[in-house]
Amino acid sequence: MKNMLSLPEGIDKMKALCLIVHACDISHASKSWDLHSRWTEGVLEEFFRQGDMEACMGLPYSPFATDTLCMWLSLKLNTYKDETIKKEKQKSETKKQN
Its Gene Ontology molecular function terms (predicted)? Predict the structure, then answer.
């Protein structure tokens, strides 16, 4: 059993660490809303800072690394959310009438 649990000698430590960091970045969605919201704000702030640094160095922006793009996406999501709420209300009213 001990041999089955041991790690292979040729493990790529950098890839393993990147996987751990990525898992931490995306796992916050399974937490309570308050904690998830704080993590989301932190991740967005990190992306925005990265976009600012890239702009200062004359590099192309990384995906979602500009607040302008995120504001556009936020507007799209809010529009979708509003339309979904409106449809749900209409369904509810239709059920009440029947």
Answer: 3',5'-cyclic-nucleotide phosphodiesterase activity; metal ion binding
